[in-house]
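Q: What changes when zinc ion is included in the input?
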Amino acid sequence: MATTDDSINGLTEYCDECELDTLHEVSVQIRTESIKKENAQFSREPYRVCECQRCGNRSSQRMNNA
Ligand SMILES: [Zn+2]
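A: The predicted holo structure follows.
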C-alpha cells in the first residue's frame, strides 16, 4: 500500500548554495511593481519564493514571464 506522507509545505529543489537537492519551503508572494514612476501605474506580479530549509537561502522568481 502506498502511503501518502504528509510532508510539510515543501519541495525538493536544487539549491545553489548547498549545491544539493534540498527541501525548500515554497510560497507565493504578490509584489507590486511600478511600471513607470510618472504614471504611478502599478502591476501586481506573483512571485514564487523558495527558501532552502537547509541553509536558508531564498530565491524568488517571477511567475509571469512576459
Ligand atoms: Zn541551501
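Observations recorded in class: The beta strands are 10-15, 20-36, 41-52, 58-62.
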